[in-house]
Specification:
Helices cover 36% and strands 20% of the residues. The chain is an alpha/beta fold.
Length: 610
């Protein structure tokens, strides 16, 4: 629905009503939007509006029909789990079940003891941590206040990434704890890798079918009791683009330049891509996914290391093409190593895979890839089929969008840090970043799709002040934020914290920020260039130096955004914000942390960290 938000000044709505409605519209699926149109129509026309099933044409009012109830509980960091939850709800309703989707930070833990039917869909953040909106509920179900769940029938879908050692850990936690509390698992938990669609679809079907059987026969279909004209002013659902994860759009590269100056230790590419005729739309805060290819030289090195004939084929396709375009081998995951060891068990590798040696195993796979695995634990006579059999599909890489569609119609811009490093005696390359920097040029077409992020969005109230904290390539979404607010005439103040190594070589988009300052679309810019002086200075240091002003902005309703490194920057920034709340709000450590967590729940503290 957000493709056509209500514009300020259009129609009889006040600015506040417009902002609130746009906030709701941004969360609606086409089916939900149609339902809402029908509901309002029936209400105005005097029809019965207690129940209006999804799929009923707008303007049709129906009678109330009792239906079984299913709760779909969601823990999500970027919105993927919410998307799966929406599909699950539709599948459940198609089976005649009444279903509701509830985010974990909106769920009242006290109601858990009365739940009878629940599907849990949850991602895992980083190394086994629950996503931010699931932290409190995760703590509750593992705490002393968790209720007995003898009456609960449940199933869990976990979203994760096998490149992390604690793969899908949060979903595993919920699954095990619900069983420990007495719940009955009616469909096996499914753990999904980054390419999750097929596995999720299969789980949705099995889990909703099991729920239908457990709940019993669905209530009879609702009866139509009146038809009213379609309500004017409600936008009809807009057809989605035909291009998505399974059918990416071949987008032409329009621009690809290095943003860093001569002598920089970094290479950061500004990449502009064409979206004309794609039907793809995005909002600031969303990501663009790109399907890369593997480096040909690295593909050849893998084939040589495995001692496989370079002309070998698998199911009629050359091994080189499969490794170049279809499979990932530049990382190591536990499933990969387990499959490899199963081909011909190695005593040392078997010991390394033992659960007691998890720390040693994590240390081993860090910075290594399949070439290292074959080098360290060679298998004589490894076949092409066996090699392909241990690999996972090459996933798309996600990049925060660095442009506003309003400012750049039919285009999408990215800020890409090129990754190159040496590890274990060999030069390594980031798959997608070097694909863009070394193996494409202007005019090259690359497969892309838009990956929405519902949890990293500008405030719906254009007068709200915002504070953006994004060192390095974390600056990307904030370029989009400022462009969007400038284009839409938002009146809220905008404060940006940016940092990198050196002013002269690493000040990304310097001229643009200076122009935004002159025009007033950027209110304040605080910079932290770590290596321009003896003592390193980072964005968290600038936050501490300006903590009083920052606290005042928070008290004035500011929304805080953080984008970038999850391991060091994000925790340090989080602590700097807590310190500001303590110092100037007179709060204890515990209360300051609680206030920041409350701000996160209210969408006033949003993070996109990786």
């Amino acid at each position: 629905m957000q493709q056509f938000p209500i514009q300020l000044g259009h129609g009889p709505l006040t600015p506040e009503q417009t902002a609130h409605l746009n906030q709701v519209f941004a969360t609606l699926s086409p089916a939900q939007a149609g339902w809402l149109g029908g509901y309002l129509t029936a209400a105005i026309s005097g029809g019965s509006v207690e129940a209006l099933p999804v799929g009923m044409p707008a303007g049709v009012a129906v009678a109330t029909v009792p239906a079984p109830s299913l709760t779909i509980l969601v823990g999500s960091e970027t919105g993927n789990a919410e998307g799966v939850a929406s599909e699950t709800k539709q599948a459940a309703e198609a089976k005649g079940l009444e279903a509701k989707v509830v985010l974990m930070d909106d769920y009242k833990p006290a109601t858990l003891k009365s739940e009878q039917f629940m599907l849990v869909i949850c991602s895992t953040h980083g190394e086994g941590d629950p996503p931010m909106n699931a932290e409190d509920f995760h703590e509750f179900v593992h705490g002393k206040k968790a209720p007995k769940l003898e009456n609960l029938k449940y199933s869990v879908l976990s979203l994760g990434d096998t490149s992390y050692e604690q793969y899908c850990q949060t979903g595993k936690d919920f699954d095990a704890q619900f069983e420990k509390l007495g719940g009955t698992r009616i469909a096996d938990r499914v753990d999904c890798d980054v390419d999750y669609e097929d596995a999720a679809t299969a789980w949705i079907e099995s889990a909703t079918a099991a729920m239908k059987e457990a709940i019993g026969e669905a209530a009879p279909a609702a009866a139509v009791v009146g038809i009213a004209p379609i309500l004017g002013g409600i936008a009809a659902p807009v057809p989605a683009s035909q291009y998505d994860k399974k059918n990416p759009f071949m987008s032409e590269i329009l621009e690809n330049i290095n943003l860093n100056g001569r002598g920089s230790n970094k290479e950061t590419r500004h990449v502009e891509l064409d979206l004309e005729a794609s039907g793809l739309v995005y909002q600031p805060g969303d990501a663009l996914a790109i399907y890369p290819t593997n480096c040909p030289e690295t593909v050849q090195l893998l084939i040589e290391t495995a001692k496989i004939d370079s002309d070998a084929k698998v199911d009629g396709t050359s091994l080189g093409d499969l490794l170049g375009h279809t499979y990932e081998f530049t990382i190591l995951t536990r499933p990969m190593v387990e499959k490899y060891n199963a081909i011909k068990p190695n005593k040392k590798l078997t010991t390394l895979l033992n659960e007691k040696n998890r720390k040693k195993f994590s240390e081993y796979i860090y910075g290594r890839d399949v070439i290292d695995l074959i080098t360290d634990y060679p298998i004589e006579g490894l076949s092409p089929d066996q090699l392909i059999g241990i690999l996972r599909k090459l996933p798309a890489r996600l990049y925060s969008i660095a442009s506003s569609l309003a400012a750049h119609p039919d285009e999408v811009h990215l800020t890409v840090g090129v990754t190159k490093y040496e590890a274990h005696g060999r030069q390594r390359k980031g798959v997608c970043s070097t694909y863009l920097s070394e193996r494409t040029e202007i005019g090259t077409k690359v497969p892309v799709y838009v990956d929405g992020n519902k949890n990293f969005k500008l405030p719906t109230d254009p007068s709200s002040p915002i504070i953006m904290i994004g060192p390095g390539t974390g600056i990307a979404p904030f370029r989009a934020f400022v462009e969007e607010r400038a284009e839409t005439g938002a009146t809220g103040k905008n404060w940006l914290f940016f940092g990198d190594q050196h002013t002269h070589t690493d000040f990304l988009y310097q001229a643009e920020w200076q122009n935004h300052l002159k025009s007033g679309s950027l209110t304040r810019l605080d910079l932290a260039f770590s290596r321009d002086q003896k003592h390193k200075v980072y964005v968290q240091n600038r936050i501490e130096e300006s903590s009083k002003e920052l606290y005042d902005w928070i008290e004035d309703g500011a929304v805080i955004y953080v984008c970038g490194d999850a391991d060091y920057m994000a925790p340090d920034v989080n602590q700097a914000l807590i310190n500001a709340l303590k110092t100037h709000g007179g709060l204890s450590d515990e209360d300051a942390a609680a206030k920041l967590k409350s701000m996160a729940k209210d969408k006033r503290y949003q993070r996109d960290v990786y």
